[in-house]
Each structure stands twice: as C-alpha cells, then as structure tokens.
Amino acid sequence: MRSIDGAILDLKRLDLLATGDSLIHRLDARAKVLTTLVFIISVVSFDRYEFTALFPFFLYPVVTASLANLPGGYIVRKIGLVIPFALVVGVLNPLFDREVLVRLGPLAVTGGWISCASIIIRSVLTVGAAVILVGVTGFLAVCQALEKLGTPRTFTVQLLFLYRYIFVLTEEGARASRARELRSCGRKGLGLASFGSLIGHLLIRTWLRAERIHMAMLARGFTGEFHSRQVSAFGWRELGYVAGWSILFVALRLENGAQWLGRLVTGLLS
Amino acid sequence: MSHHIVAVKHLQHVYADGTVALQDVNFTIHHGESVAIIGANGAGKSTLLLHLNGYLTPTAGEIRIGDFPLTKQTLPEIRRTVGMVFQDPDDQLFMPTVFDDVAFGPFNLGLPSDEVRQRVREVLEQVGAAHLMEKPPYHLSGGEKKRVAIATVLSMSPDILVMDEPTSGLDPFARRQLIGLLKNFRHTRIFTSHDLDMVLELCERTIILHQGVVKADGPTPEIFGDEALLAQCRLEKPLSMQGCPMCGQGRREQRNAGRKGSGGVNDS
Predict the structure, then answer these.
(1) Looking at domain B2-260, which CATH architecture does it have?
(2) Which domain holds residue A249?
(3) Contact B79/A221, CB-based, under 8 Å?
(4) Residue in chain A lying closest to B97 (CA)
(5) Who has the most CB within 10 Å: A55, A104, A130, B132?
(6) pLDDT of chain B along its 268 residues, tens only?
(7) How many CA atoms lie within 13 A of A98 on its CB side?
(8) Quick one: chain B helix, strand, coil %, rounded to 5?
(9) Is A103 on the interface with B (CB under 8 A)?
C-alpha cells in the first residue's frame, strides 16, 4: 500500500513546489494560466502527421521549469504517469494507417507510426505544461485565476473540492486496502466479493470524512471563497510574459521551427 | 463581560434515524470558565459540541452564545466567537502548508494580507510551532498537528474555545506540553475528554452527560470524589486520585476518605 500513499504524497509535493519563490512564482497566476492555454492550443492544433515542428515547443516547459527551480526528475515522472494513456489512444494508428509517408533508407515509416508518435509528444508537452503550471502556481491560485478570467464561481469551487477530495478518497482507500491486505495474509483474501463491500464502505467513510472537513471549514468562516496569500496584480511584467511566449508559440505554430533552424544551420555551413 | 456566556436551555437532538442523542440538556458557562464535559461513549458529548457552533440544529431547545441566540443570521459571528478544535487534526488541516491552514480563518474574516501574516506568526509562536510555518501539515507529528490545529482556531481570535478530546493520541510529553499551553489560555474553555487527569488539572468545573441528560454539574474535585456517581455513568476516578498501584499508598487513604462520605454534588 506504500505505493498509493506514496503517490498521494507525491501529488501533494506538487502543491508544495508552488510555495517556492522565483521569478516565475511571483508572476500573477492569470499570466501563467493564459500562457499555458495558448501553449496547449498551439500544440494540439497541429496537423496529426506533424512531428518535427513539435520539438521546438519543448523550449517552454524546459525554460519555465528551470527558471522556477522545479526538480526535473520529479516533473518527468509525473508526465510519465500519463504516457500509458496516450499510448492507448495512439497504439492502433500504426495498424490502420499503413500509408508510407517517409522513407529513411530501407526503413519505411507509415503515417500511423508518425501520428502515434505525434500523439505521445503532444501529450508530453501538454501534460508537462499543466504539471508545471500547478507546480509554479498552486492549484488554488490556478482556480482563482480562472475565476478572475471569467469562469463561473460554481465551477471553480467544484474544481477545488474535487481536487481536495481526491486526497480524502485516496487516503481512505489506502487505509481500507491496507487493512484488507493485512488480513488476507498474502493470499487473495475473499476475492472480488469482498471488494464490493469494501468500496461501499469507502464511499461512506469518504463521505463522512469529507463532511468533517467541511465542518472544519465552516467553523473557520468558509463562505465558498478560497483566499490566497499571494497578492499580485496583472502588470507590465505579466503582459510581457504572456505576449512574449504567445508570439513565440504562434510563430512556431505557423512556421516549422525545427526546419527553419535546420535551413539556417545548413545555410550557414554552405 | 456578559457576552462570553454559553447558555444551553432544554436542548434536545434527535438524529434522522430516530436516535435520541440529547434529551434535555441545560447548563450555563460564564466568561473565563474552564469546563469539562465528560461521559461514556455515546453519551452525547460530540453531538453537544456540534451544536455549540451551529453545525447541528436543535430538535428542541435553545442555545445562546454571548448576547445572541444561535440562529442562521448570527451564525457567522458565532462561528468566529466559538473556536472549535476537532478531535482528529487531520480533519482540520487541509491546506498545502501550515501557514495556509492557519491563515484560512483570518482570510475568511476578510482581514488584509499583512495582518493575516502577522496573526499567523503570532499564534504559531504562541503554540510553539513557528518553525513549522512552511511545512505541509501531513508531515507533522501528532503533537505538532494538534498544536497547529489549535493555532488555526486561535488565529480567528475566538472568545470561547471548544475542544473535542484534546489529548487523545498524544504521547505523554506532547500531552504535558498541550496541557501547559491550554492552562495559559484566558478564553472560556469547554473540553470533552476521557482523559480525566487532564480534566482534573485544567477544569475547575465538570459536567457529566449520561444518556443525553446532564447527570451532574459541579466543581471537578467534588464530581471526581463521588465514586457511586462515576460508576453509574461508566466513569472512574482519575488515575492521579486512585493512589499508587505498586505500594498501595493512597488507596488506603482513599478508602478511609470514602468511609467518611463524599461531598455534595449537584445532581440534576
């Protein structure tokens, strides 16, 4: 059960990273949310066979993460968690799409393989950007920024509670599962049958615990609004940040940055 | 300072499934008093506490906190006045860092950021947890969690502190530390506990709840002197009043004292 407990702690660490202090951390959350949004839209709007043009986009996560002193290994592991899902989405492409698009010597690369690779790279980029956004901003501040940008309050508070209760649910789940495992003495226990009641209990316990937490929130004057200690305003610095990155993203979207760099290098050499 | 009074009149609470948790509870607690509410499991202690800051609505009866009756309109003010510390600090600490958790209440009160910072620092120093400010709550030890949980409530400057089982799950040293801390508070304090030795040390007055009614209400030494009453309510004398089990001393004295008869307790 260490794995589940560990995974939760690992997730909580992401929130903790957001309490850091760096150039990126100090920016207004709205600037970071907007930039991430432009980044994601630019990346996912590429044609499905696009492959090389995606690589220059790695500049953004790498630069942001290093400026914000985020631990690289940790971020990579978090992204790694999502790759299997991307693989499930893309794995059938090579079977259905057998049209040869590129020949590398004797190796014929079909459209299916290219689109599959493209899906994986896109997920790495977008998930990476989202993980980094939370890591430099904090989930609470991201939700507040969404609200300031016009998302309805009901939606952002729902999102916050969802995030909060993920931890409640997984913690209760880890406990119940540990108790079951210890009593099944290394065997399968009562098998599937016991899981039915385990999940039922889990629901009720989570519910009760969530109620107690809600009670503690109400006791401290919670009125449906979360506050953050970060007081920041959307100033020139934020504007520059959003504009600078957005221009770069749009440029990279319209012009294949990798090819352009290649032409530049070969042009210089010849 | 009449506005720190807690008055409970004919309070009754019946849960949706028909369980009668509180039948008819009456008491008044005055400013600056330190009162223990004790009783067996299921006597209705927790239900009673949940009424004190308006989380549960009485089936019948009335609660007044200070000059206000507890109603929907007075609820926000009453929740600030009555600081509630829950039994399990994990239920109370839900923010990413200790700072955020302690600041949660003051921010909800609408205080400006600078003042919140200052308050958080002050209360954390008060409970001896200033060094934990930037730590995540789930990495703290049980004793630290408890002190931070108390700080989350103190930061709202409550007049009345209500604590459910403050010493449960603490090691002897952390328990001692906590008792020392609570002794210094000047708030009106209401505790529920099974730690009767703590009650003896912290509370001059004790209320025994039994099957949803107040069975006894009086000075703590008198209540704990009445063995028959305690046994009837599934309780027993605090260990510190029971004498030494090794040498037998104290036990003999107790027996002698018992023969002389114990003092009057206001049975109600």
Answers:
(1) 3-Layer(aba) Sandwich (3.40)
(2) 2-150+231-258
(3) yes
(4) A16
(5) B132
(6) 456 689 999 999 999 898 899 999 999 999 999 999 999 998 889 899 989 988 888 999 999 998 888 888 888 888 888 999 998 888 888 887 899 899 999 998 888 889 999 999 999 999 989 999 988 887 788 889 999 999 999 999 899 999 999 998 889 998 998 999 999 888 899 999 999 999 999 999 999 999 999 999 999 999 999 999 999 999 988 888 887 777 766 555 555 555 554 444 444 4
(7) 2
(8) 40, 20, 35
(9) no
